[in-house]
Amino acid sequence: MAEILYKDESYLIQGAIFEVYREMGYGFLEGVYQECLEKEFSYRNIPFYSQQTLTLYYKESPLNQIYKPDFVCFDKIIIELKSVSKLNPEHRAQVINYLKATKIRLGILVNFGHHPKVEIERILL
């Protein structure tokens, strides 16, 4: 059986996400969940950067275009937040493209707009 990439870190991140959803529910804009997760990550001592500028690459050459993911946790996991009724393939493609361009291997796509529970998808490169 294959080892789960960053299992312990992912577990901690998901716990924070569940807590924010339990506390806030669904229906707010992404910015509200962004701020709540910043607080929850801090409460739980989860190392993170919020909206940090990351360099994108094309054939090993840096691009002028930049990417500001919602979060990078543990310096190795991208967290992308959504607040939509349903995740669609474009949301997944966005995370995959960010992973490819930044050389980070794991992304977590989170949808706070879903009811009755938050949607969390692990996306591996």
Summed up, what is this model?
37% of the residues lie in helices and 29% in strands. The protein has helices at residues 7-24, 30-43, 89-102; strands spanning 48-50, 54-58, 61-67, 71-73, 77-82, 106-111, 119-124. The chain has a five-stranded mixed beta sheet, with helices on both faces. A two-stranded antiparallel ribbon has the order 2-3.
What do these coordinates show?
By secondary structure, the protein is α+β, with helices and mostly antiparallel strands. The chain has a single domain (7-124), classed as Lambda Exonuclease, Chain A. Helix content is 37%, strand content 29%. The protein is built from three helices and seven strands. The chain has a five-stranded mixed sheet, sandwiched between helices. A hairpin with a 3-residue loop joins strand 4 (71-73) and strand 5. Helix 1 crosses helix 2. The mean pLDDT is 93.
CATH architecture: Alpha-Beta Complex
Main sheet characteristics: 5 strands, mixed
Report the C-alpha radius of gyration, rounded: 14 Å
Q: Helix count?
A: 3
CATH fold naming = Lambda Exonuclease, Chain A
- Which structural class is indicated by helix and strand composition? alpha+beta
> Using DSSP, what is the number of strands?
7
Unreliable runs, pLDDT <50, ≥5 residues?
none
According to CATH, what is the class?
Alpha Beta
Q: Strand-residue fraction?
A: 25-35%
Order of helices and strands: HHEEEEEHEE
On the 0-100 scale, what is the average pLDDT? 93
Distance between the first and last residues' Cα: 18 Å
